[in-house]
Design a protein that fits this description.
single chain, about 425 residues, alpha+beta, eight-stranded antiparallel sheet, 13 helices, binds zinc ion
């Protein structure tokens, strides 16, 4: 498919669509696909639809968003508009997933779209959406269905990442960064992904054999002990969804991750990268955890937004994820700050406030809400990753008898350094 008006190599966009459908989703013949994307990403939406139908999709249904429409609410919406969300749409998506539809999301948005809007209104909109979208998110969070998230080089996003370049050049650079991180700049991207998944699998197998009770992070101002949930399981790369389909939920992905114990996190965590949450940049986050809960928090920029985030509900001040990413990962080595969690979380070790992945447990616990709570899994309306790792990060694994095992040294896997 040729798009002469796009300032980047559209052959790689074709490959990205194939990787999203074959590796990302592992789409099965006869499956429906529900696809969300901004209108700007239509060149990728169309390619993914073509790849999905070639793979045997029954119905591909795109649900498009538009930045100007999003902003119209803030400029013209009446008071009641800010506590409202289209529950009917999320309920329809939930019904599709209950009937085994796959889910694909394309991110391309301007990370700072809501900068300058009333943060209180932005928080109300986010909260209304979080609550209304719960039925549509649950099959994804619980990994009942195969799902995938992939990126498209949007213009406003590209301007944020490359502020000194003319717009077309910025889009071209962001496109190249997305293509490289998504491994579609190689001859056989599907084979590259199989090899990458095998590397991630070796790491999760090792961590699962160790069965650490906690991880201790030090370096870069962080000194944090993260207790791990009982019966936690490490995941990463390709895994099998509840519907039996093997998929790679994130393209790109470099992390291995698991579930912390919500009451057993203690010490100080300092952000190694800024975070953009709902359009607000939040920089230099520093927090202190006592028995799993944040008791002190500060940030040099966006402190009110950060406080709002951890006050969302009772679980928002506790952790739902801990993830290991080597400093040598290609995304980290690009040196770019993407202002997009899909990219930035794959550049550094991170933790996430809020909801845990109930799938990151051994089979006897996974997917059983009561057992997940008993094992120490956290619950919240939010799930927000933030980066604590860097070139100075050391991580020790602590076994149940208190023995320390080197996991990371100076930002890299101790076993691979
Ligand atoms: Zn993560
Ligand atoms: Zn996460």
């Amino acid at each position: 498919m040729q798009d002469p008006h796009l300032p980047f190599d559209t052959d790689k966009l074709d490959k990205l669509a194939e990787v999203a459908v074959q590796v990302g989703l592992g789409l099965q013949p006869g499956q429906d696909l529900v696809l969300t994307a901004p209108v700007e990403a239509l060149p990728l939406v169309r390619r993914i639809a073509a790849a999905a139908y070639r793979a045997g999709a029954a119905n591909v249904t795109p649900i498009l968003s538009d930045e100007a429409v999003t902003l119209a609410r803030f400029e013209h919406g009446h008071e009641a508009a800010f506590d409202s969300a289209p529950g009917w749409l999320y309920n329809g998506m939930a019904e599709a997933f209950a009937n085994n539809a796959a889910r694909l999301a394309i991110t391309a948005d301007n990370p700072l779209l809501l900068k300058g809007q009333d943060p209180d209104k932005a928080a109300r909109v986010a909260k209304a959406n979080s609550a209304a979208s719960k039925p549509a998110k649950e099959p994804v969070v619980n990994f009942d269905i195969n799902w995938n998230i992939v990126s498209y080089p949007g213009r406003a996003w590209a301007r944020q990442v490359f502020p000194d370049l003319p717009e077309d050049a910025a889009v071209a650079q962001l496109a190249e960064a997305i293509f490289a991180a998504s491994r579609v700049d190689r001859d056989d991207p599907v084979a590259e992904w199989q090899a990458h998944n095998a590397t991630l699998r070796a790491r999760t197998d090792w961590l699962n054999d160790q069965a650490f009770s906690a991880l201790h992070f030090t370096g870069g101002g962080t000194d944090l002990t993260v207790g791990l949930a009982e019966g936690h399981e490490w995941k990463g790369g390709a895994s099998r969804a509840g519907n039996g389909t093997t998929c790679n939920p994130n393209i790109p992905t470099e992390e291995v991750f698991t579930t912390p114990h919500k009451d057993r996190v203690d010490g100080v965590a300092k952000a190694s990268k800024p975070l953009v949450y709902q359009g607000t940049p939040i920089a230099d986050i520093e927090v202190r955890f006592v028995q799993g809960r944040i008791v002190e928090a500060s940030a040099s920029e966006g402190e009110a937004a950060w406080q709002n985030l951890i006050d969302t509900d009772a679980g928002a001040a506790r952790l739902g994820e801990v993830a290991l990413v080597p400093h040598g990962s290609p995304i980290s080595q690009s040196g770019l700050l993407f202002f997009n969690t899909l990219y930035d979380e794959n550049a550094a070790c991170h933790i996430a406030q809020g909801q845990c992945y109930s799938d990151c447990f051994v089979d006897a616990v996974a997917g059983d809400p009561d057992k997940v709570v008993e094992a120490g899994g956290n619950s919240s309306l939010i799930h927000v990753d933030w980066m604590i790792g860097g070139p100075k990060t050391d991580v020790d694994g602590i076994t149940p008898d208190g023995t320390r095992v080197p996991v990371f040294r100076r930002g890299e896997w101790a076993s691979e350094a």
